[in-house]
Amino acid sequence: MTTHLPRDEQDASAIIRDASEKGVLLSLSGQNTKAEMGRPNQTDASISSVALTGITLYEPAEMVISAKSGTPVSEVMRTLAEKGQELPFEPMDYRPLLGTKAEPTIGSVAAMNLSGPRRITAGAARDSLIGVRFVNGRGEAVKSGGRVMKNVTGLDLVKLMAGSWGTLGFITEVTFKVLPKQERMVTLVLRGLKDDRAVEALSQALGSPYDVTGAAHIPARNRQGASTLIRLEGFSVSVDYRLGELRRLLKPFGGSTDILEGRGAEAVWQSLRDATLLTDSADRAIWRVSTAPTKGAEFTKRVTQALDAQWFYDWGGGLIWISAPVDGDAGASVLRETTQALGGHATLVRAPAETRSAVDVFEPQSDTLMTLTKGIKASFDPAGILNPGRMYAGV
Question: Which residue windows are coiled coil (predicted)?
Answer without folding.
Answer: none
